[in-house]
Amino acid sequence: MSKVMNFELVSPEAKLVSEPMYQVEIPGDDGAFGVMAGHCSILSSLRAGVVTLHKEEGSSDNRRIFINGGFADVSAENCTILAEEAIDVADLSKESLEQYLTDLNEDLGIAEEIHDKKHIEDNIALTKAKLAAVAI
Amino acid sequence: MPSLRDYRDRITSVKSTKKITSAMKMVAASKLRRAQGQAEAAQPYALAMAGMLTRLSANVVVNAASPKLLAGTGSDQRHLIIVVTSDRGLCGGFNSNSVKCARNKINELKRAGKDVSIVCVGRKGYDLLSREFPKDIIHSFKGVFGKKGVEYAQAHKIAQYVLDRLDDNEFDICSLVYNSFHSVMVQEPSCVQLIPFQEALIEGLSEEIDKEVERAVKSPYSFEPSEEEILAKLLPRNLGIQIFRAMLDSSAGEQAARMTAMDNATRNAGDMIGDLTLKYNRARQASITKELIEIISGAEAV
Fold first, then answer.
1. B167 in contact with A at a CB cutoff of 8 Å?
2. Is B44–A8 a contact, with Cβ atoms under 8 angstroms apart?
3. pTM of the model
4. B201 pLDDT exceeds 50?
5. Residue A20: DSSP 8-state
6. Chain B: residue nearest A117 by CA?
7. Do the Cβ atoms of A43 and A58 come closer than 8 Å?
8. B237 touches chain A (CB under 8 A)
9. Confidence tier at B103 by pLDDT (50, 70, 90)
10. Which DSSP string corresponds to B119-182?
């Protein structure tokens, strides 16, 4: 069996990553899991969190990508992640995220309509998840 | 009879119009290329999502507890129609075609005694429909087709709006009317039902889906957390994707329609210039002849 699998990270607007990977860590809804070649077929929904890509066994400079939730489709040779938003953790800045969080909290105080409130709360949860990703 | 000067002015003005239309044609052509590229780039996501949906819906039994997006509200009284048009005009019959399709559908539903509400995407659709159905338009999204093309965030916003209305129990069935892009010459208005979700309506993907189903049968899948929960998360996102695809199709179609329309306009302007030049020369010749006759008859009289 080959030691690598085809990994794809797809957003609605473009295919972001498409290359062979040794191992990928995925933030599943029921807990994070690692995928290597030969994994059993699984379809999982994902929470907002970090996908870590290991290109080779034991490599240390792993790429970390933040996704805002999505879905993973895993089979023995393929691993496809669908995410609406994906951004390299290295590109996230702690200061601007914190600023954004304060703004959102202010908005939440002003918002009146129930749907608006819900959307802002979702956004707050997302920003907190991003902050957590930066902190690691 | 118009004077020589009038003809000259007309010719100059038609010439500059021709310059504008031919420039617009060039711009539309390059925008069309970009829009098509964008539509292509969006394909993998839509395919993967359609594949997942087919696999899931094969494993889920629809019952009363299923999400509204899949099972519907159990009634078909209230319809929500999303009409996708362009923000700008000068693209031939592009907007009037999709509006006509929407209008037929609305009138048909109204005759059947259903309630209809309309959401417009794109400025032109609102302009055209607001005259006829001013009370039924509940919201309109304008300026969603940005300079850089269609952004997913816009489609997401529209989907979110529709989901909120569904949450508030404001409609039972939601359909989408847009111009689907067949080729540069042909854009056909089409109407698809979004809610409740219908599998067969993932256009143009059926072959790929067959492959997916084959694959799914071959390898048994496990689902995490569970089929129902994934489906409940997948369906709202699928709604966004459907809207996004419609917007991409529509924006490619818009540029194609504009290209064709501007090509025609340029050709017409050329014909018109030829016509006017002929008339101008004739008038010039007539005035020269007239002057000569005047001189000759003046000389004879002396």
1. yes
2. yes
3. 0.87
4. no
5. E
6. B164
7. no
8. yes
9. very high
10. EEESHHHHHHHHHH-TTTEEEEE-S-EETTEE-HHHHHHHHHHHHHHHHTT--SEEEEEEEEE-
pLDDT score recorded for residue B208: 60
Q: What is the pLDDT of residue B146?
A: 78
Token pair for B26: 């060039």
Q: How far, in Å, are B191, B225, B229 from residue B255 at the CA level?
A: 20, 43, 40
Prediction ipTM score: 0.85
Q: Identify the domain containing residue B212 by its residue range.
A: 27-260
Q: What is the pLDDT of residue B215?
A: 61
B contacts of A73 (beta carbons < 8 Å) = 48, 51-52
Condensed to tens digits (0 to 9), the pLDDT of residues A6-23 reads 999 999 888 889 989 999
The alpha-carbon gap from B77 to the nearest alpha carbon of chain A, in Å, equals: 24
Q: Do A119 and B160 touch (CB under 8 A)?
A: yes
Indicate yes or no: CB of A84 within 8 angstroms of CB of B230: no
Under 8 Å CB pairs connecting chains A and B tally to 81
Enter the DSSP assignment of A30: T
Q: Is the pLDDT of residue A2 over 90?
A: no
Percent above pLDDT 90 for chain A: 22
Q: What is the pLDDT of residue B302?
A: 83
Measured between CB atoms, which of A40, A45, A119 is closest to B230?
A45
How many domains does one find in chain B?
1
Task: Tell me if A71 and B42 make a contact (CB, 8 A cut-off).
Answer: no
- Indicate the residue of B152, B164, B221 with minimum beta-carbon distance to A12: B152
The answer, yes or no, to whether residue A67 has pLDDT greater than 50, is yes
Which pLDDT tens digit goes with each residue over A85-112? 888 888 888 888 888 888 888 888 888 8
Q: Which residues of B carry out catalysis?
A: 91
> Domain for residue B271, yes or no?
no
Beta carbons of B222 and A43 less than 8 Å apart: yes
Q: Are B94 and B86 in contact (CB under 8 A)?
A: yes
Return mean pLDDT, chain B. 87
Q: Which of B218, B209, B224 is nearest to A76 (CA)?
A: B218
| Cβ-defined contact of A29 to B49 (cutoff 8 Å) | no
For residue A113, the tally of other CB atoms under 10 A from its CB is 9
User: Residue A66 is encoded by which pair of tokens?
Assistant: 């933040």
Of A29, A40, A82, the CB nearest to B45: A82
User: What are the chain B neighbours of A29 within 8 Å (beta carbons)?
Assistant: 224-225, 229
Specify the pLDDT at position B47: 86
CATH of the domain at B203: 3.40.1380.10
Instruction: Output the average pLDDT for chain A.
Output: 87
Residues in chain A with CB shorter than 8 Å from the CB of B208 are: none
